[in-house]
Amino acid sequence: MADNRRRRMISLIVSFLFSVSLSCLCLAPIPASAHLKFGVNGKFKILQVADMHFATGATTRCEDVLPSQTAHCSDLNTTAFMSRVIAAEKPDLIVFTGDNIFGADAIDAKKSLNAAFAPAIASKIPWVAVLGNHDQESTLTRQGLMNHIVKLPNTLSQVNPPEAAHYIDGFGNYNLQVHGAADSSLQNKSVLNLYLLDSGDYSKVDSLNSKYDWIKTSQQFWFDRTSKRLQKEYNAKPNPQVGSAPGLAFFHIPLPEFWSFDSTNTTKGVRQEPISSATTNSGFFTTLVTRGDVKSVFVGHDHVNDFCGELKGLNLCYGGGFGYHAYGKAGWERRARVVVVDLNKKSNGSWGDVKSIRTWKRLDDEHLSVIDTQLLWNSSAKGLVVPRL
Ligand SMILES: *[C@@H]1O[C@H](CO)[C@@H](O)[C@H](O)[C@H]1NC(C)=O
Ligand SMILES: *[C@@H]1O[C@H](CO)[C@@H](O)[C@H](O)[C@H]1NC(C)=O
Ligand SMILES: *[C@@H]1O[C@H](CO)[C@@H](O)[C@H](O)[C@H]1NC(C)=O
Ligand SMILES: *[C@@H]1O[C@H](CO)[C@@H](O)[C@H](O)[C@H]1NC(C)=O
Ligand SMILES: *[C@@H]1O[C@H](CO)[C@@H](O)[C@H](O)[C@H]1NC(C)=O
Fold this sequence. Notes:
- It is a single chain.
- This protein is of the alpha/beta class.
- It has one domain: Metallo-dependent phosphatases (Purple Acid Phosphatase, chain A, domain 2, 4-Layer Sandwich), CATH 3.60.21.
- 23% of the residues lie in helices and 21% in strands.
- The protein has six helices and 13 strands.
- The chain has a seven-stranded mixed beta sheet with strand order 1-5-6-7-8-10-9, with helices on one face. Strands 4-3-2-11-12-13 form a six-stranded mixed beta sheet, with helices on one face.
- It is globular.
- One 2-acetamido-2-deoxy-beta-D-glucopyranose (NAG) binds next to loops.
- It is found in: Secreted.
- GO terms for molecular function: hydrolase activity, acting on ester bonds; metal ion binding.
């Protein structure tokens, strides 16, 4: 009798421990030290998801779809599109560039965030997010939102960089390093640097007469310092490299320089609405061009603009609206941007530094059509700027 009870107790404890360890395995976040790296195919692929505007799920209706589509369309179509595009592209990283949730229609910000990111979490692919101007219009502040996001499974998001947390404006400023291919001489070096920034929500400075916020001096200072530190590491032994590794920047609100393009001179894609940048210019474009490492900026915010344009060696790209509860244009498919970075192959067959940065978009139509494929940058077209440390 006593023996039986003990055996049952032991088997209960064992199965309890087993299920605890299983759930820990599934929920364990990717450790912050786990850096990203190029694949053995010499490629690193990013999926940009802009403006999901997720609210409550099945009960949240779609905006701006064809009359024939209205009856059977909800937030779940946003979820389905994400699952499909992740399966089709198999990216190495998913970047959400803000307005992940539409706060005004979200009853519980945590639930909406969890549901919005669910397909990315389920894919087990590392993902990161920054905030837009609508995320905080529900039950969490911007800080509260980032605090929640960084705890979700498989994310590499950060609230703010530890070394700058005491001075930087906003929540969700951080950088990610992408190391060279495994077993190559650059496996321990960042050959591609990603900068994620909080472009804020609405201006709090009445006299500047700007509706939208901007990237503050403190953030530009952090970017400049980080870019210089990364270049020093890139140039250092062992395997010292020349110049700086290329970078990509992701945030929500376009820079005023996006106004430089009309329908005649975007390189690919369309401009179908005005640019909702701040009406004041905080100088981030100048900061980026001066440093010279960032080759392209990717934003969201204006859902029916999906162009890239090049100005002074810097590409300015929109992701194009992704979410069905976001305003859009009926009959103009929701879309996502893909960015692929390729490495140079050395004469002995091993992978080297970055060769090119390409992009295209995927439409949420029957075949997930690929459109607007273009080269954004290649290493034979080195910029005019030689960044100085
Ligand atoms: C939304 O999803 C439903 C259910 O799968 C589907 O019938 C409908 O065509 C989708 N609508 C759009 C606009 O994709
Ligand atoms: C290929 O050449 C590079 C130098 O260009 C060297 O660092 C690397 O170890 C070589 N790889 C192999 C597999 O021989
Ligand atoms: C990279 O770092 C690992 C671990 O410290 C080391 O074993 C390896 O030799 C390094 N590779 C190169 C190319 O520096
Ligand atoms: C695009 O064309 C407009 C005039 O149509 C011009 O004002 C603008 O400077 C051009 N932009 C670039 C980047 O060339
Ligand atoms: C590299 O970029 C330059 C400048 O944009 C372009 O002229 C050249 O054709 C590109 N090279 C390749 C191989 O695509």
